[in-house]
Amino acid sequence: MAERSERSPPRDALVQASPSLVLLEVDGRCASGFIATDQGHLVTSLHVVAGARHIHAVLADGTRAQVDHIAAMDDRRDLAVLRLPSPPPAPPLDVSPVSLPGEGDTVYVLRAMAGPAPEIRSQEVRAVQVLGDWLTLLELTRTLPDDASGSPVLDMRGAVVGVATAALANGRALGLVIPTRYVAPLLRTSSRAPLSVLEAPRRRAGRVRQVPQHPLSLLEGATSDALESIATTLGHAINTGAPAYNRGDVDGCYRLYARTAERLIDSCEAFPGAQLALRDGLRRCEGLPDSDDRAWALRDTFDGLLDVIGRWLQVQPEPARATRPVTPPPKRYLN
């Protein structure tokens, strides 16, 4: 275990937490989880079980149990609660909300392994990321292996502060911690949904973006001021619609994007290329089955227009360049 020489890790807490760790075997790959209630609620990361057909839980004492039920999911925060078939022999970890570590603080990721002893990784918090009222998370200084997703994370006092997840953001691998404050509400359920409910998050996680790559000629005849206005409108729609989507209001996000596209089509008659791109996005929505797919189709449309507008502004002579920045899409930290 790597540790900072000027600090002592909470050895007693780490030892006491070890029996509560669970190695998950998910369709031939491994992940981590941990027992969170006496009733057999098992916490892990949603992305590691999304779409799973077979899940087996290997407890620290070697007991192997088949998991057939899901108690709760939080797609926005990459959390899943599985239900063991019988009460576990090990005590649950306390996931009561606690104060989060700050930048530079040390935390410990307990990764479940075959056998009773976990792998313990000490990490420092790079930053506390506040993505809105729906999520605050910790970004770690180093990445995590994929099978560490779902591991409990302890602070220097030995308290469980969150759930580790290996994530991608803007093409970069990250180690993140989802705070326990989001776990506790998921444990207040007695539901037992079948594994088939994991298919929807798998489909979303595997979504392939289809952002159009427009030539600069699409904006022939445009002016910097007009394109700045379009970019600002698109950026505002994304910065409003993306949080709504993350809160679970998928239909509201789609309707906002559709209204934005329709307003821009009416207001940019002088730029038939931009109108055509927006109409193509709305037309694509007509053949899609649900609001989730339609919201992403319009998001792809908006990102394609923002990209070509940004490239167009970069090649203009200095006096013609935009005085207001093009609003970038918001960061996406979770898988």
UniProtKB/TrEMBL annotation:
Keywords: Hydrolase, Protease. SUPFAM superfamilies: Trypsin-like serine proteases (SSF50494). GO terms for molecular function: serine-type endopeptidase activity. One of its GO terms (biological process) is proteolysis. It holds the Pfam family Trypsin_2. It comes from the Bacteria. InterPro entries: Peptidase_S1_PA (IPR009003), Peptidase_S1C (IPR001940). This is HtrA protease/chaperone protein. It comes from Myxococcus stipitatus (strain DSM 14675 / JCM 12634 / Mx s8).
